[in-house]
Structure formats: C-alpha cells, structure tokens
Amino acid sequence: MSTSTETTAASPTAPRRARRRRPDWSELPRGALLAVYALLIAVPLVVVLLTAFKTSSQMYENPFALPATPSLANFAELWAGGRIGTSFLNSVIVTAVSVTVTLLVSSWAAFSISRIGGRLGTFLYLFFSLGLAVPAQVAMIPQYVIFDQLGLTNSLLGLILINIAVTCSVAIFILTGFFRTLPQELFEAAQIDGAGTWQLYWRIALPLSTPSLAAVAIFLFVMHWNDLLYPLLFITDPDLATLPKALLDFKGEYTTNYPVLFAGVIIASIPMIVAYVFLQRWFVAGITAGAVRG
To answer: Is the pTM of this model over 0.90?
Structure first.
C-alpha cells in the first residue's frame, strides 16, 4: 500500500500542489503612480470625445455625462464655410513637405558626420547639437526680420523653410547616433566592391536605418502638425492658416464654443493617429529587414 502511494507521488503526471505567490508590495508605489498618470491622460481625452457630440448647455451641465442625444452638428458647424477644410489642406502640405525634406537633409548630414569621424566629425556633431540648446522664442525676432526681407512671410513656403531649419538639429542628433552604430565592415566591404559614397548611403545606410527614420518621422510629424507658434508669427492671411491656427477662431475673448473646438481637436488628431499606426508597422518591418540584411 505504501509502495503504491510513493509511486503515485513520484509519477510526473501526479498533480502538483499550487504554490501561492506572495504579493510583491514593492511594485505597489509604481503601480499607483502609473494609475494616476493614466487617469491624467484618459480623463481629458474622454471629456473631449464626449463634449464633441454635445451642445454647450449639456457640456456645462455635466461635462462627464454621456451625450443625451449624440449629434454631429458640431462637426457640421466646424466645416461650414470651407475654412477648416482649407486649413486642413495647408497643414497637410506644410507637414508632408517639412517632414520629407527634413529627413532627407538630416540623413545626408548625419551619414556624412558618422563617416567623417575624428575631430571634424565631432565638431560638426556638436555644432548641429547646439541648435537644441537655443529656445525657439529667442530667435523669433531675427527669423521674422530675415524672412520678411526675403518676402517669405505670409506664405506656406516660408513656413516650410522655418520648420526645416528649426527641426534639422534634433533630427541630425538622433540619426547621427544611429548611423554610428552601423558596422563599418559593411561599408568597407562595399567599398572594396567599388561602391561610391552615394551607394553606401542609399543601398546600405538607409535600409538599415529604417527604424530610426520611422521614429524621427513620427517625432517630426507631431511637431509640425501641432505647431502653432510659427503660423501665428508668419501667417496673417486666413486662407493660408494651418489647422491649429484656424481652431483659435473658435476661442473668443469672453466665450468659447468648446463643443465645436473639441470637434476640431478630434479632426486634428486623426492624421496623427493614422500616421503613427502606419509608421509603427513600418518601424517593425524595418527592424526585421535590418536583421535579415545583417
């Protein structure tokens, strides 16, 4: 009888007694902080989403309540007259051109700095990095004077150029750090096979840097799409206003139409969400492609 019991206990198929896992109380403070942070992020988003489908009276009565009768009237009022549609198109043009040109120029500069190396490469890297230490507000007056003398104020071209000039420093800073991590053996082997500098950049550096380019593109897209400072400084024509500047028309000195304004915020957020989802998938694909090539 005892032998049978011992055999059953030693059998691998015998059920094992579940061990109780002691709670890790050291994780409690971090979990509480994350919960508070999540509430700080979620509550404003919920209020904006609910208010966009309410009337002003419903919003002031109870901001956190569900809309009694959800309506798209705020979105219809927002698009009435075509002003928001024009501003939306202006934002798309300015953001798309600014991000594309900034990525091209910054990747060229970052690749050159990483290939030069030595004291000259370090000097150029520090020179471009100094742009991160200068606040945009400090250079606003000189920038406006220069652009006004060149006739680039109150134009989308001037807004695109100032966006590129302001964000090139941070893009070069990020991309240079990534290009320096690429194995030099790949470039040396390509040079032995007769590849020139352009081929090293286009066929080796760019395919391997897809993850970094995607991350920088997301960062630049958010900066350019949400920028309000430079449109306020350079743009005075309502037909050339970008979307953030156009939404200011719904904010008055004494009263503000919050339901319509929040509807505009939702519309302005959609392209960023779509761009992030698209570039996130590209980000993962870039990592896989780089791993296969390596």
So the answer is: no
